[in-house]
Amino acid sequence: xxADGKRSAVSDVGAWAMNxxxxxxxxxxxxxxxxxxxxxxxxxxxxxxxxxxxTALVGLVSNxxxxxxxxxxxxxxxxxxxxxxxxxxxxxxxSLMLNSVGFYQIxxxxxxxxxxxxxxxxxxKQYSKEVKLSVMVVVVGxxxxxxxxxxxxxxxxxxxxxxxxxxxxxxxTIGSFQKKYSIGSFELLSRTAPIQAVSLLVFGPFIDYFxxxxxxxxxxxxxxxxxxxxxxxxxAVFCNISQYLCIGRFSAVSFQVLGHMKTxxxxxxxxxxxxxxxxxxxxxxxxxxxxxxxxxxxxxxAEKSSGSKxxxxxxxxxxxxxxLLKEGVESTLIKDVELGESKG
Length: 344
Known about the structure:
Layout: H1 2-34, H2 44-64, H3 75-98, H4 101-109, H5 111-123, H6 129-146, H7 154-180, H8 185-212, H9 223-249, H10 252-259, H11 261-273, H12 280-343
Subcellular location: Membrane
Transmembrane segments: 41-66, 78-96, 133-150, 219-241, 253-274, 280-299
Keywords: Membrane, Transmembrane, Transmembrane helix
């Protein structure tokens, strides 16, 4: 039992490590690929279509070779999930284009409380005071180190709302599907990735044209750009798999909270690799965020421990009640027999 617990803990750490490393890696690769100082590939939505196309290909090969099994999920569920996921991607890109960086960061931070509220509405999930407090600490910490200017406009606000709601719903649905259909993270991803890939590759170029006024077919592709596109797609496979894996093993809220570790890593690597400015405000915010993550981890473990003790007490009480009930029935039968004999 103890060995199983240790293996589970190692798997948990491995899943988080894969997600953080692949996410940070893909951000760095995309920065070089998409920035004006790099290769100027300013087609984020189409690039995401490439990501899902490669992920779908890996899933197809895995199923064909028997490394994974294709499990049934109703097509209508896959379709509406893919629509929500694609609206999340498009909404994020529109929010980044229409809003200031500060408001974009605030909208991303709002996902944690939104996920909490949606899980409470959809699944009646409750959170302890410690968890709520730690979530607030993380939000404040990341806000301090990332939010600068905050400018709001109607179109940008609407795009941010769509992005936050769709992203939150998508992440909650990943966990729900895995439980509902008893399907593994990679098996679920291999079912949703082809639909997302086709839709994003068809509509992505037009969305990107609307976002930046450039059409992908006019882009002069170079060998360096191709290398970074392939690197980005390879990292995206690990990023997508680890996202589904983490949400399946933990929860959408935990994924959001600990996912902000990526923000800390990106700021630190930006300072180390790209000479980005790292101010006292950034450092203070990162320290607050890390503290919040540590407190959150402790609060979740305390909540699990408390829940298991309560469940154990409930089970014990039920057994005792059953025993007393049996004794009561037997006593009643004996009395009935005695009354019958005295009457006779």
